[in-house]
Design a protein that fits this description.
Blueprint: H1 10-24, H2 36-43, H3 47-59, E1 63-66, E2 70-73, H4 88-91, E3 98-108, H5 112-117, E4 126-135, E5 138-147, H6 150-156, H7 158-168, H8 178-184, E6 191-201, H9 203-210, E7 217-227, E8 230-240
Antiparallel strand pairs: 1-2, 3-4, 4-5, 5-8, 6-7, 7-8
Helix pairs in contact: 1-3, 6-7, 7-8
Amino acid sequence: MVSSAEQRRPVVVLYERIVDAIHAGTYPPGSTLPSEPKLAAELGVSRPALREALLLLQEDGLLSVRRGVGRTVADRPPRRGFEHIQPLEELIGAGAPVRVRALLRAVEEPTDFTAQHLLAAARARLRFWESLLAADGTAAALSQEWAAAEDVLETAHPGFARALDAVAGSPDAARTSMLAVLTGASRGVPLSAHSSVTATLVGQRRGEQLGRPADTPAVLITQVVRVGDVPVLAAKHMLPTGAAALPVLQSN
C-alpha cells in the first residue's frame, strides 16, 4: 500500500486523480464525462494516457460506456479499497458514519507485537491507543494502534510526533484514530504500508468490548506503516462477522 505518487506509473496517478474527482463530486454518480479531447485538456494530459486510465476505470466499475452517450460515472462508484492508506473509519460501513470512541489512551513498554513490527527497543515508551469503531450504534471494529518511540518519530517523521502531542491534550484524542492523525500529518511525506489479513475468533476480552460472543468469527488485520524503511505505526484491527464491510479494491 503506497500513499505517495513516487515510483508509480503516470497512468496510475491519473487514474487516482479521476477517482478523487468522482468522489469529490466533480464528476458525480450518473453523470457523463466530458469528451476525451475536453477531459484531456481539463486534466492537462495526453489523450493516449487518458484513454488508458479510462479503460482501467471502466474495468474497475467506476465508469460505463453507453452507445450514443459516452462514458458515464457509475451510479454507486466503488469506494477506495484497502490498498490506499486511509483510516479504517473512512473505509468501513456502507455510507453510514463511523464513530471512533476511545477505550484507552496510554504509554506502554514494548510487547512481542511491537518489538517485532516497530523494532522497538526493550525499554522504549510507546503510545498505545485502543478504540472502538461503531456504525449505526453497532460495534464495527476494535482497533489497537501503537506509535514508534518518540526518538524514532523525531528522526523519521517529526510532523507525526507533533500531531500526536497536539491531539493528546484535546477532546479529539477520544474520537479519532492514530492512523487518522498520521495521515493528516503526512502531506508531502511518502508513506508505505503492509497489511496481513487472517481469520480468527474474537475471544473473551474482545468479545466483551465488541458486544459479541467469544466464539464470533472475525477478520484480524495487522498493519504496519513506514516512512522509508522506518516503521512509525503498527496496528491490529478486528472486524467481527456481521459488522460493516471493508471494501477491497484490486487493480494491476
